[in-house]
Queue: 3 jobs
Job 1
Amino acid sequence: MDALQLLLSGLSNGCVYGLIAMGFVLIYKASEAINFAQGDMMMLGAFITLGLTNEQYFDLPFWVSVPMAMLLMGAIGYALDALILRKMFGQSQIAVVIVTIALGFVARFVAGAIWGYEPQSLESPIAGLDFRFAGLALGIDELMVIIVTIALTGALYIFFARTKLGVAMQAASQNQMAAFYMGIPVKRMHSLVWALSGVIAAIAGILFASKGSIDPSTGLLGIKAFAAAVIGGLGSLPGALIGGLLVGIVEPFAARYIEGDIARIMPYLLLVLVLVFRPHGILSQVQSKKV
Amino acid sequence: MNLLDLQNVTLRFGGLVAVDNVSFSVKQGEVFSLVGPNGAGKSTIFNMISRFYDPAEGDILFQGQSILKKASHDIPHLGIARTFQNIELFEQASVLQNLLVGRQRHRRSNVLEEILFLPKVRKQEHHHRLAVEHVIDFLDLQPYRDKFISGLPYGIRKVVEMGRALAIGPKLLLLDEPASGLSTEETQDVAFWIEDIKKVMGITVLMVEHDMHLVNSVSDRVLALADGKILTIGTPSEVQNHPDVIKAYIGSDEEDALT
Amino acid sequence: MRIIFKTSYDADIRYFSNRVPALWYLALLLMSIALPFIINEFWLGEFTLMLIWAIAGMGLMLLVGHSGQASLGHAAFMAVGAYSNVILQEYGLPFILSLPLAGFFAGLAGVLVAMPTTKLHGIYMAIATIAIGVLAEDLIVILAPWTGGVSGKFAPSIEIFGINFDRYGNVSGLYWLILGITCLIVLGYKNILRSPLGRSFMAIRDSEISAQAMGVNIARTRTISFALSCAITGISGALMGHFSLVFTNETFNIVISIYLLLMIVIGGLGFIQGAFIGAAIVTFLPSVISFSRDAFFSNSAIIPGIESGMFGAILIFVILFEPMGLYGRWLKIRSYFELFPFYRRDMFRRQKSYLKTERMR
């Protein structure tokens, strides 16, 4: 009984990690760059929704502010790539990593300057609701997170497999040169991938914020999500979700059954173990360089 | 005496047999060339000698000793140097530093001595520099000594690659397409250098090359490969007139013409 | 315009290629030594802090700038240095022994981290080191019996042969001491760069394949670079402990690691000078921000997080407009004046190294 509750909260946390991790993977697949600001983009998405929804700010209906936040984050993602990352083409991967880290710092500062550093909670219609079932209290918010994640994963799958834009994006990320010759605007595809991961970040942020409170350093959660992405294998979208779920489930169980301090480091221990024994993740795609 | 022996070497990538039961020997002091169409397994053979790939079967001997137990970084210490087909220089360093890396084989100081830069290290640096200056003189690289690789034109980079391999002071030099992408004049220079490397320096050369003029003018013996199999070994003219070789090179074109 | 005639190989081995830069750096050193007589104790403290950051920056620079491996967890090694230094002193060792030993232990920790991760590349290495940075923070709490856990450790004031170098009692003394240590590390660093070891670092940075073909043992070289880098960083950690007097797990958290990395990138990767420029920015940015706030806005409240926000913004600008860092920009300005009027815009242009893919093509 107890285990079921832990599993549910683990799954819902894991879904949020998984969504952020999917953002990492999308960008990695497209440009072999890692967006360390993905967690901060999630935080920003959550705060934008909060700013639009909450009474003290704009006080819009929740269902109006959600699509607005998604659009806004998509635009921010597109702009980041078009204005900054595209200009870095040709610089090393690590330079890109460093820039995205810096972007995260800036995002945290901007969020703090606008919404303050105190934890706030999103006034969402599902927050705090739960329903009782056979002696368990299952949070509606937690269930919602899981349902939305499943729906989003399905939508992404259809997008990449069936739509023209999705296929073009895949092509551009698998072989830039060939895609370019086929007349696919590779640069714009990259920006669109960033926009897409901005939208996903917004969704992850909204889901996260509807489960609890957020503050500008919420984005540091991204590090955990990043561990999830690597555990799953950076090149694989399903891997990202699996990694996220794994990290999400490990956490509450470790917190329950292992001593507190050690429980906290479990995701990272898991990450180190994966890196040492399966360096490219559980579902790996990387081969060594050819001479 | 045989410097290098490949004995029944086979390598598979998944289901693809890249090198199929290949045996040949390179004699001390000769220039030995590998020719064949793209994908024949020439560079793969180099990569096995460099120990980047493990052959599935067979053995590779250098001076009568198997090198299959050695790691990649031990190979230069035995006296085998190589260049790469798609130039692999140290981009963010000067030509001089690139060549000096080749002297790693002759490093006789440990980390602590180098941090303190003891007189011994300084003396050793002078020796390295002298050896490298010989190579620079040999290849006429003087004007580029302090230039960064990342700013050099392709032709010069190609020469620096050769220089870096020579700086090792090898017994056997593996040249992977030394003339690819070079102009006729530059290829002519390469031909002279290979002659001198053999005659003056006494270094044995194993070369992969597509430019048949270069192959003919410098090689003592030529091995023709196709689809990982040996077609024939012999003098340049023997190989060039061998029916199988002609078929391997132009056979596919004929098929194309028929269809 | 300056023309340098080299008459012996030593011209390329010496620290300075000719007398002009040698004199400039001598002047800089004399200025640094005279600093305590010029500025007040507050600013001297700031300069001391800058030197400590510069040492940490040099440690990371050796790894990132010269052997091409990213570390996003270097604060962990500062922590190893700080804790082992203080713990050794608690066992009665004098500072003069505990400091190098702290460096040694930090280097050892570096080896332990490097050994299982030598197969990891680029981004994966960065990830592994992040994990180590995060783990270290929690490990300090878990190892509370030795580390004091969340209540932290108290660093005694430094004493060498009866002379006390207290953080507040002898500010100039502490500054000179740390200046001396900094100079020693710079010399050692320069020596590494001009010896075969430095070239093997450069080799694994620019092309691992080629490094192997030149006889460089990659696993060993990477481990050595990690060990040396962590040892230097550990020493800076130990000094940081003495400087801040009390330190806890929070003192060396993951944000500090990231700051270190951003710092050396802003300063200029691959230049020792870059570590110092970056350190100056990290140290003096908060003061600059607070002074300009007081000057321009009369009644402004303190905005938390403005430092890291500014820092991030500076970094983005530097990377976009001057990938060689501030020191690289300085080199360009200098050669503009040296070569006037013959400087060409593309003089420092390097071929872009287009996306080196890690995936199979």
Job 2
Amino acid sequence: MPKLAVTSAIGLYNQIPDAIVLARVFGSPAAKPLVAVHYVLGLEARPWRGGFIQLQGFYKDIYDNVVRGETPTSPNYTNNGRGRVYGAALLVKQELFHGFYGWISYTLSRSERKDDAEQPWRVFSLDQTHIFTFIASYKLPKGYQIGLRMRVVTGNPITPVRGSYYSANDGGYSPIYGPTYSSRLATFHQLDLRFDKAWEFNRWKLSVYLDIQNLYYAKNPEGLAYNYDFTQTQRITGLPFLPVLGIRGDF
Amino acid sequence: MPRTLLFCLALTACTSFRPETLVESLRVLDIKSEPAEVASGSMAILTPLVVDLDPNADGRAITYEWALCNKVPPTGVDIATECYDDDVADFITPLPTLAGGTSMFTMPPHTLRDLGTPDYTGGLYVPVRLRISAGTTRLTAFIKVRWANGLQPANQNPMLADLAYIPTADDGVLADLGQVVDPQSLPLDGDPPLVLPFGGKLRFRATAQPGSAETYTTVTGNFTDPSTLMTAQTTELVRFFWYASAGNINNAVTGEARPDTVIDTHKYDESITRRQGLIDLWLVAHDERGGSDFLHRRIQTQ
């Protein structure tokens, strides 16, 4: 492989709608598969032994995205949705060299949707502006291995609640929402650590590992919970500090 | 280990909000329209149930601002956002504030087509907004007043008959929670208030006047195909919403079939000492067509 290469790709992809979309009563059996055209242009380099650097720009054009029908007389679901995703990704990778391997990747992207062609673009519910991953592993003597993974990711978009009112007909409160997906959960960050010890036999290999997820117990928000009148919020957090001890056999 | 704690450990997602049933600040607990269903050109009296138990309230003044909002919400939306946001607009009609914070209004002329999509009871509604202010606190509430279209008898408000204490041998728990016949129930409408043991689980029962749950006609079928439409007789479900100034209410909403709730006065008891053992209870009844009724009782714990 040359030390420097220019790469490009174009792909046409289809995705069948979820089963609930195709259900006869509550769905729309006539819904079509989503269509996406991917365009990728990149540079790749191998500047040192075992080293690999890749820089890619990408654009995805999404057609026939399944969205809910807008009026009572509309089908339950339609293919009126559109989407686009664009950004760039950088990967710096070290292949196994003197017992060490790992990589750093960073993606800057923007994912947007609209429910019909006339609407303005809005951010997608799973849009993540920054995605940073660092993975490193080191093989020690006598079958020991230690690895770690660090992830930092922009929090998912949420639609903020900017007010609420008491509904005397229902006996409860209703929220008043701000612009759709105009706020975000706090940034996700997590460090995982893993120890492995392997014994090799004639025909198989036995491994014992300790996988510690969320080593420093980051209380990453998975969502927000509101009190009864939407004036207070509390974070719904994901996995706590989670050590897992495992045994694995490879035959 | 309690099952709740195990569930919390599994999800790390449990919250510690104070319950909706606990009244400890400025609150709107109901707005009652009399009559419950109003024909165009007819008048209705609107009576709010507003409570201010903020510990720093000290008899502070509450201001009331009423307005009718003639803005149809988008399909699937309860109240148009503009009705919440806008104070001055051509679809906002200020209403007078009368004694006790009540108001009155005359139902504007409407047709079956200009109030949006009917709800599941076939009802069309006109939203009336109430904003209340006390100190730095400002709250917004809406009542959607049902428009009488003349196609069937107008809905009437449910009427609460009683709120009673049910003595129990074991801290509020009856053998059968659905048991409704208990000759020992003690009404709470006396003066001075009924004295009950402090720190216990107290059982209470709501009853509505006979006929509060009315029968009405609904239309079912595919509205795009008139040949499939059929009428059916439906009886309203009357629900009781419970509120208290102290304690934890185990069933925040009950109904005529299972009308009891239990208040655990061990919990959220901060105000009991401050108020010399008094606990306020509010009971609000809602039917399914915009009708309501409320009452207030007080008990003395010691």
Job 3
Amino acid sequence: MKNYMKISLLLLSLMLMLGCSGYKPVLQPEGPYWVDDDKQDIPEPSSKDPNLAWMSIKRSSFDQIEDGLDLERNFRILSDEREEAANINSFDEVPNCTWFTNRHGFARMTPDEIAEGVDLTPGPDTSGPWLVFRPKVQGTTPGFWIEDSRGDQYVIKFDPKGYPEMATAAAAMASRYFHACGYNVPQETIVYYRPEILQVKEGVKFEDKAGVKREFTQQDLEDILKRVHHEPDGRIRSLASLSLGIHGKIKGPFSYSGRRSDDPNDWFDHQDRRELRGLYVIGSFINHYDLKDQNSLDIYVEENGNKFLKHFLIDFGSTFGSDGQGPKPPIKGYANMIDLRDAFVSLITVGLKTWDWRGGGEVIYPSIGYFEADIFQPDKFDPIYPNPAFEDKTDRDCYWGAKIVMAFRDSDLRALIETGQYSNPQAEEYLFETLKKRRDKIGRFWFSKVNPLDYFETEYAGSDLRIRFDDLGIKYELWPQDAVYDYEIRYGKELIRKDRVKTGEIILTQDDLNRMTSAFKATDKKEDYIYRMDIRTTRGNGDPSKPTRLHFWYHHDENKFSLVGVEHLD
Amino acid sequence: MNRPESYHANTVWVFILTLVVFTVVSVPAFCYEIDTTRVREKPEENITFGEAVLAAPSFILNLPFWVLKNVSDFTVNEIVYSKPIQALFALKLRPIWGFYPTGGYNSNAGVKAGIVYRVKDLLSEEEDFKVKASYSTHDYQTYSLRYKIMPQNSIFNEVHFNFSYRQKPRESFYGIGNRTSDDNEVAFNLENGFMGFGWNHEISSQFSTGVDFSYRILNIYDGQDPSLTGSLDSIQAKFDLSEDELANARVLTVGMNLKYDWRDHPGQTTSGGYHALELSYNRGRGQLQDLEYFLASVSLYQFIHIYRQRVLVLNFRTETIGKTDGSPDLPFYLRPALGGEESLHGYKEHRFIDNTTMLAAVEYRFPLLQGVDGLLFFEEGRVFDDFSKDFDLKNWHYSTGIGIRLWDQEGLRLNGYAAFSKESPQFYVHLSETL
């Protein structure tokens, strides 16, 4: 008897654990929400400045142990029931908010729009003078803050010696890429200028290499410039990053976990935000290894009389083949800095298990650094240290990210690459081919995890209801066009219609719709009700996919159906 | 009905045009439209019964991490600005300039703590001056001073002066020879004063040589380990030692060394090798003024890259002394030894002592993390009274174990070993540059 009690208690606990799902979008007759009202006026939050070393240790070890002890999370992982993102709408999308704005993955931008990126100023005025008001002399790549003749402030960064164009091009391209994806980013401009336009502002203090605080002189500036690459005509190429202070007050980085206690607009735990989870795939495309808390920024902005926090991604010097101070070492993007999981595998196999990146990597073009597509595996991307949002990602989050990556077609990629202002066309071509390969790998991998039917459209044609959709696997030429789509419509548990189509269009005739409504009327309910359509795709001789589930709302008064929900079940 | 051919052609064109129009118009249109009037308010957080039930144990489980997270946040931020601690967190222990603490532990000395003062540029820009003082819970004492100058454009690439005084009251001794037993462990107290100077010259980037002169004052006293026999009389009787083998010594030494180093990355070598030969002539003063002996040591390392940073390290080392005719017996503490951190890790320090030592070791290193390697090793070693007569391949002592190495681009930062033999297991953690 006691055993029965124990088993019952265990089952009850399991049911409790698995039964409690997180936030689920509510289906509404008007369709999904497309904007989050998270721009409410709030009191000025405090500034944060987490310690890099501590965050690295915390994310790599303490968080890992904590996750290991999280019973609910582990039961979910074991039962393949991970919690879906909390901030999605009923179309499996992210509403526009202070974190994210739907752009290229949603409604195509033109290549010119992608290349334009953030365009608040035309970049620093290279006719000069530039007033240096804060130097950065530590580290292998120096830099400084300037104020141009228009009074705009920029951070000026350089390419590491021996790798001209590498870091500046990477940052310029990445900022435009993330902007097109929908994130808030700083304006990054590549500039060429003559060193004579630089002037040191009077009274600027700095700590020199010996740790002595003293006045920054013209000689110190010249010493910095000696360490950077000069063009044959004497000009210097730099990345000018428009100071984010232009937007408002800087409040330190956001965390990829939890919420800010001093921000009432912070509705969802950050690890549960779709746009942060999906950043795993979006970042993997350009090998943004440095996706850590410190490379983000909360800014207290003012819009329409309301003051609130806006959330930015910053510092893209370690994207593509660049590691900022040199080419990316082969490990970066393929393992965490302290990858305890890989270390454990190495330990128990005494080094017999190896990873492809350990074979080393070749820098073919110094202006590109180390960037490849052959050993890249979309699900094996690892940032500098474990990122809580990435740790909790689901296949649906990754599908969402992949959908955005796949939206970058060849012409978009070429437009992005052009913003890197490479002098070597062969390097450009190499980068283009590598990006194409990585993009298609991402598409093939993540699109196979769910049924990639998307961009649903419904319209009444006479008395018929036409449902059109894109099979993204075919649209992006990832798979042959021999797919068939089996669908079934249910009202509650009752099967109303089941059929197969060979194109991305399903037509529900008046007879079908009558059957649907009569099923509803039979229940004698007065309120509106929801119908479910599951579509499964079969490619070639393969097995049917998991379903993409559509929810139709029956508007009783109008006797009409409208699409109110889309789920890509994983 | 016969249709003209153009009809078929037109049908094809209409179909193609329809397809093109459909593709051009419909593909961009297949995106959802953002209805900006559909605004979501802050959602209510409904905690399910299950979540409420789980919140309690989750809170309890997370409590230590909450404490750790919040307390540590504060602690790290506060102390990280102290330069030695900052360096420690960054795993950059060398070189630290100025005052910094030093410490350690071993079973003989107990817990050691001390302070180091290290300064560059004492008189010029090419110097490294270091003073160290430490004391341990078992009264081990170290006071040392090192002055190193690295003149540029000189045949002497490094000139160094060293002065030190060490007191080691609980050193272990097991007898002389290869067949000693750890059950016979006794303790003695060794006082060691040292002064020396020398210089090194780099013949090429891989080949270097050096010369050293030193004078050592070594006094032996009764050991102070309360759990072990410590009186020198008892030790003499127990191991049948001669007066000379337990005598105090004053030794003048002149030595030279040759080093051939072709490792690819010293500190984290994946291929290449390191060969060192050291020879010294030693002459006794005072009580053992007839003492006269040569000491030769050879150390050969070969690093073989197997694949993808898996490295096999082969090591052979031998050290031997040769007395001149008429020289008295060498005090046991001056003889070559095996055991401890430098050789035959599975045995205690100086576990085997005699006139010649020989060690062969193989180590397999494999990467665990970026900058962290795991390792497996196997060593065999033996001591000989008279190498030319006694050499055989029997009775070699083996030691095996696992270890870890932490390194960065500048070299090795930390290594740790767990070593096993027929005797008690030994554990080492060391912050230093090793091969």
